[in-house]
Prior knowledge:
It is a single chain. The mean pLDDT is 92. This protein has helices spanning 3-14, 26-37, 49-55, 75-86, 93-100, 103-112, 127-137, 179-197, 217-232, 244-248, 250-256, 274-287, 313-331; strands spanning 17-20, 42-46, 65-67, 118-121, 148-154, 165-169, 202-206, 237-242, 268-270, 291-298, 304-306. By secondary structure, the protein is of the alpha/beta class. The protein has a 6-stranded mixed β-sheet with strand order 8-7-9-6-5-10, with helices on both faces. The chain has 2 domains: 3-139 and 308-331, Rossmann fold; 148-287, Isocitrate/Isopropylmalate dehydrogenase-like (Rossmann fold, 3-Layer(aba) Sandwich). Helices cover 46% and strands 16% of the residues. It is built from 13 helices and 11 strands. The protein starts with a helix and ends with a helix. The longest helix has 19 residues, at 179-197.
Amino acid sequence: xxxxxxxxxxxxxxxxxxxxxxxxxxxxxxxxxxxxxxxxxxxxxxxxxxxxxxxxxxxxxxxxxxxxxxxxxxxxxxxxxxxxxxxxxxxxxxxxxxxxxxxxxxxxxxxxxxxxxxxxxxxxxxxxxxxxxxxxxxxxxxxxxxxxxxxxxxxxxxxxxxxxxxxxxxxxxxxxxxxxxxxxxxxxxxxxxxxxxxxxxxxxxxxxxxxxxxxxxxxxxxxxxxxxxxxxxxxxxxxxxxxxxxxxxxxxxxxxxxxxxxxxxxxxxxxxxxxxxxxxxxxxxxxxxxxxxxxxxxxxxxxxxxxxxxxxxxxxxxxxxxxxxxxxxxxx
Length: 332
């Protein structure tokens, strides 16, 4: 069974409810119809039912629940809840009313209130538009130091990673993490990979250098982060700093890092900054014909996940399924 088939099977069994706040986007609407038809999840669409269904008369959205912030019976309650959450930051009643009139914050509040298990957005909005209300309303998991993101790349080249599956992090949030932040990204990513795949993580901390072959501040940062990860979790398989080919190609690892435990079989790639991670995943997706699931956010109190604005219908379906599985894992 492929990774996608496994995730879809788990999401169907979970019976979770996911909010899609960008319901007027044709890809989101089509994905919603597909998710409902295949019983992958229950769907809440944020928007006016008559308007959305008239936009897409050929799509069967009859099983979706529609919530329009401008007319919802939940609005007054949500206005007050938002005010209580944000008044220490100077939020006024007018600010709360304005925030809860927007689809994404309204949808996140539905998750906060237990009316949904997760939310997926980003087909239209930026990562900041998705993350900001999530942090303001849900905040982080207890004991979590930061929120970061990862993308699961499923490559047709099955010799790489875990039968073609490789986690890339951080692709969407942390622009230039320091060594401490990079270590936390690596630890969270390893945990995410293992929980979603049931496979042991093999983490490579990436650089333009392999074990001192290059010099510079960025190399030192990755080496320091690697040491911190090993200190925080001595049982985790993690090595670095590694060049990308050293991390995923056994023959190259044999030459450049002959004593490597990972030996060119890394399944989690931790990039030194957002530039390198984001550029890499988009190139692998387009040039390598790999499926990209994410960005998936990690560290939030509830599953709120981002999409690339270039996401396809199948990408959206996949991220919704992953969000369902994330919610199931939090129930355990």
